[in-house]
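Folds vary. Our protein:
___
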Amino acid sequence: MAIKRHKPTSPGRRFATWSDRAEVTKKTPEKSLTE
């Protein structure tokens, strides 16, 4: 899982990081699990 770091545009965002779950989740739901 990658960690995203953004440019510090304000003091509150200076050390903010977000988890990137692109390799864990899919864009579309599993067809066999939907109605």
